[in-house]
Structures are given as structure tokens and as C-alpha cells.
Design goal:
- The strands form two sheets. Strands 3-2-1-4-5-9-8 form a seven-stranded mixed sheet. Strands 6-7 form a two-stranded antiparallel sheet.
- By secondary structure, the protein is an alpha/beta fold.
- It has one domain: Rossmann fold (3-Layer(aba) Sandwich).
- It is built from eight helices and nine strands.
Length: about 210
């Protein structure tokens, strides 16, 4: 899928795409670098789009690992099914709300890593919290979650554009958050590596 086609799909359904261009290889590498992929058995990708990160994941995963890729956009789902052929890949046409159900339906209780390209700033608060809560319950003690956010750090709330403090949100679900800026992406983005999930529930907001 070329850049023009991706951009047309983004305009047509921006809430499910949340991007104006596929992730650059530099962003993909930054998203994967913190993940324990060499020893991973089950990895989840949320919002794979046209597969820029998906293919990089498959290149690094062991031969006996499984990659569950959740894509809600119908056109991207069909594209992935047709163009990324690997027996380790299971493309699931479902939203992030279905992660725990689909993971456990396949016989897994825990996952080793989660990589997300979701536009969290475009999601309602309730959906963001439900998504992060499910991840925290699925990741084990050594699991890692990576998420990116565009450099502008904006969100839609009550029909208005506002600043979105993703770091503050992530600290409610993970004990360790590391971040870096990837300039060689359109637009530039922050990558967050999250460890030490709180599986027992949401934590109090950190002091400002």
C-alpha cells in the first residue's frame, strides 16, 4: 500500500488510523528495541496498519513464537491478510477492547510483549483506561509494552484539541516508563517503553 493510499484511508477514517503516514523504519526499530523478542513466545501488536512494525517484529521473533495483530480498520486488515504471509502471524479483525478475550481464547494467560500504534489521544478516557488495564493484566513481570505518541502531544476531548499527558497516564499502570524522541518519522514521535505493570489495578496519579 503506497503513501497516497494510506493517506486517503487516514482521512476517510482517522479515528481508527490515527496517522498520516506509515511508521518509518527508525520508529519501528525504536518500538521494538526494548522488547524481549529473542525469548518471546507470544507477542501482541495493536494497530498494525499496513505492517511496517509487523514485518520488523516477524524478522526478530523466534520461529516458534506467535504474533497476534489486532487491526480494526477493514482495509488494513485485508491488506495484512493478503500481503504479510507468515505462519506465526494471526491477524485479528477486532479492537483493542478484545485483546484479553482473544489472547485467552487462543490458550494464553500471559504475553511477553505488546507494541501499540494506537492513537490514544483520539480515544475516550474510558477506552484508554480499559486498554491499559487489560495490558497490565496480560503482561508478566518481565513483559514490556511500547507505545508511540506524535511530538505535538495533542488529544481530542469534549470536541476540543488539548494537550495530552501520556506519561502521567502510563504511570498509573506501569512502575517504569522510559521515553525517547524519534526525529526521523513523519511527524516526529516519542516512544515509551513501559515495564513493571500493576496487574492489581490503577494506581494513584503521581504528584505534579
Amino acid at each position: 500500500m503506497d503513501l497516497t493510499t494510506f493517506a486517503i484511508q487516514a482521512v476517510a477514517d482517522f479515528r481508527t488510523v490515527g496517522a498520516v503516514a506509515p511508521s518509518s523504519r527508525y520508529l519501528a526499530q525504536a518500538m521494538l528495541r526494548p522488547l524481549p523478542l529473542q525469548r518471546a513466545r507470544i507477542v501482541v501488536e495493536v494497530g498494525p496498519g499496513t505492517g511496517a512494525v509487523t514485518q520488523a517484529l516477524l524478522d526478530r521473533l523466534p520461529g516458534d513464537a506467535a504474533l497476534l495483530a489486532f487491526e480494526i480498520n477493514s482495509r488494513f486488515y485485508e491488506y495484512l491478510k493478503s500481503n504479510v504471509c507468515d505462519p506465526r502471524l494471526d491477524v485479528i479483525h477486532a479492537s483493542a477492547a478484545m485483546i484479553r478475550k482473544e489472547v485467552r481464547r487462543r490458550g494464553y494467560e500471559r504475553v511477553d510483549a505488546v507494541v501499540s500504534s494506537l492513537a490514544l489521544g483520539l480515544m475516550p478516557d474510558s477506552q484508554r483506561h480499559a486498554f491499559l488495564s487489560e495490558l497490565a493484566s496480560l503482561l508478566g513481570d518481565t513483559g514490556v509494552f511500547t507505545q508511540y505518541q506524535y511530538f505535538h502531544r495533542l488529544q481530542m476531548k469534549d470536541g476540543q484539541v488539548r494537550r495530552f499527558d501520556l506519561v502521567r497516564l502510563l504511570h498509573r499502570y506501569f512502575g517504569s516508563i522510559q521515553q525517547r524522541i524519534i526525529w526521523r518519522n513523519l511527524p516526529p514521535a516519542f516512544v515509551f517503553a513501559c515495564r513493571k505493570p500493576f496487574p492489581s489495578g490503577i494506581q494513584p496519579l503521581p504528584l505534579s
